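Title: Comparing notes on inverse folding

I've been comparing how different people in this forum approach sequence design from structure. To keep things fair, I'm posting one structure and asking everyone to reply with a full sequence. Here's the target:
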C-alpha cells in the first residue's frame, strides 16, 4: 500500500495528489458525469494526507470554482451512489450552530473519529458499482 507521502505531497508548484490506476480504470470512474468528475477532483484537493473523513462540500468554498447549489448536490449524490465518497457525518443546524456534512474518499485510508469515521483502510466501493439495467 502506498504511503501518505506518495498519495499527496508538496512540490515546488504547490500541493499535488495522485489518481490511482484502479480508480481511473474503474467502470464507475468512466461513467461519471463531467460535473461529478470535477467535484471529485475539487474535493480531493482538500486531502492533505491525514484528513480523509473530514472532507467537506460547502457551496461557499466551491462557488469560486463555478459551483451552484443544484449542480453541487447532484454531483455529490452521484459520487456517493457510485461509491467514490461516503458520508460519515451528517451536517445540519443545531445548538452548536451550522455544521457541514463530512465525507471520506473510499479509495484512501481514513481516520476522523470526531466525525464518526474510525481508522479504516480503503473500501474501494466504486469497484462494486454496476450500471442499472
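Reply #1:
Here's my take.
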Amino acid at each position: 500500500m502506498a504511503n501518505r507521502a506518495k498519495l499527496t505531497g508538496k512540490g515546488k508548484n504547490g500541493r499535488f495528489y495522485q489518481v490511482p490506476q484502479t480508480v481511473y480504470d474503474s467502470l464507475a470512474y468512466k461513467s461519471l458525469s463531467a460535473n461529478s468528475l470535477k467535484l471529485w477532483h475539487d474535493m480531493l484537493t482538500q486531502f492533505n494526507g491525514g484528513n480523509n473523513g473530514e472532507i467537506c462540500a460547502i457551496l461557499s468554498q466551491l462557488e469560486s470554482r463555478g459551483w451552484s447549489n443544484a449542480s453541487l448536490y447532484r454531483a455529490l449524490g452521484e459520487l456517493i451512489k457510485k461509491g467514490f465518497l461516503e458520508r460519515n457525518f451528517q451536517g445540519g443546524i443545531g445548538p452548536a450552530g451550522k455544521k457541514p456534512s463530512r465525507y471520506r474518499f473510499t479509495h484512501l485510508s481514513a481516520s476522523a473519529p470526531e466525525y464518526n469515521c474510525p481508522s479504516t483502510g480503503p473500501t474501494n466501493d466504486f469497484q462494486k458499482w454496476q450500471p442499472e439495467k
